[in-house]
Amino acid sequence: MELPHFNLPTFGKALPVQVSHNFMAASAVFDDEHLVSCAGLVPVMTLATQTGLPVLLAEKVHIAEPRIKSGSANPAPKLTTVIAGMCAGADCIDDVDVVRSGGMTTLFEGVYAPSTIGTLLREFTFGHARQLESVLRQHLAGLCERVPLLPGAKQRAFVDIDSLLRPVYGHAKQGASYGHTKIAGRQILRKGLSPLITTISTEHAAPMITGARLRAGPRVPPGSAVRFWCVATRPTATVSSRRPAGVPGPGSRWC
């Protein structure tokens, strides 16, 4: 039996195709008031509310002498809007508007515009950053009571303190400095933010960020890493002892 033969086409050079539409970064707009773009924020922010995040923000964040009076009003819901926007992928103030797009306002109350949030953040100083660190410590402790974030931490925990270099662009970027980084095996000098990050992990849990502090330059001052270690390991207190899981407590010779 002879099988039929098919003449397969021969592929040559691809023909150029003219696109009839020019898509720009600002051309796609999500504006349907009956649709929700980030429905996953509902359980995330519900858990944040149940673990007392809005209450901690209201109790610990205060702006005593604001340059603009409206900037210091209602910091808790404004910061909650920032957190929700970051969970939805926002990496700048303008991107926080994602929590107001479409039907998101029907799910969340007290959502502020990016311009209002920018006014609040411009009032922040290093002291206010320390206030947010206090919120982070207590809120992570509340999360550890609610969900098993660090299983096996009573036996052994791993603490990692490392510096990062996140590139920024613009001549007037506040807090930016030049530092060395490695890209494709080559050392280069790059302008960016240099935060100090602390993570805690166990044999059964992925690393969890417990502290972040922006450094004044590319170098870490002597002794600051030890102090930062003491502060960043406090949120992982266990329910029973209220001490850091797997690491010495505040009364140890290191703290």
Helical segment count:
6
Residues in helix, %: 25-40%
Largest sheet: 3 strands, antiparallel
Give the ordered list of helices and strands.
Answer: HHHHHEEEEEEH
Describe the global form: globular
Strand order of the largest sheet: 1-5-6
Q: Tell me the fraction of residues in β-strands, as a range.
A: 15-25%
Number of domains in the coordinates?
2
Helix-strand category: alpha+beta
The quaternary structure here is single chain
Q: Flag low-confidence runs.
A: 237-255
Count of extended strands: 6
CA-CA gap between termini: 87 Å
Mean pLDDT: 75
Give structural notes.
By secondary structure, the chain is of the alpha+beta class. It has 2 domains: 39-124, no CATH class; 152-247, no CATH class. 27% of the residues lie in helices and 16% in strands. A 3-stranded antiparallel sheet has the order 1-5-6. A 3-stranded antiparallel sheet has the order 2-4-3, with no helix packed on it. Strand 5 and strand 6 form a beta hairpin. Helix 2 (53-60) crosses helix 3 and helix 2 runs antiparallel to helix 5. It is globular and about 45 Å long. The protein starts with 40 loop residues before the first helix and ends in a 23-residue tail after the last helix. 20% of the residues are buried. Mean pLDDT is 75; it is low at 237-255.
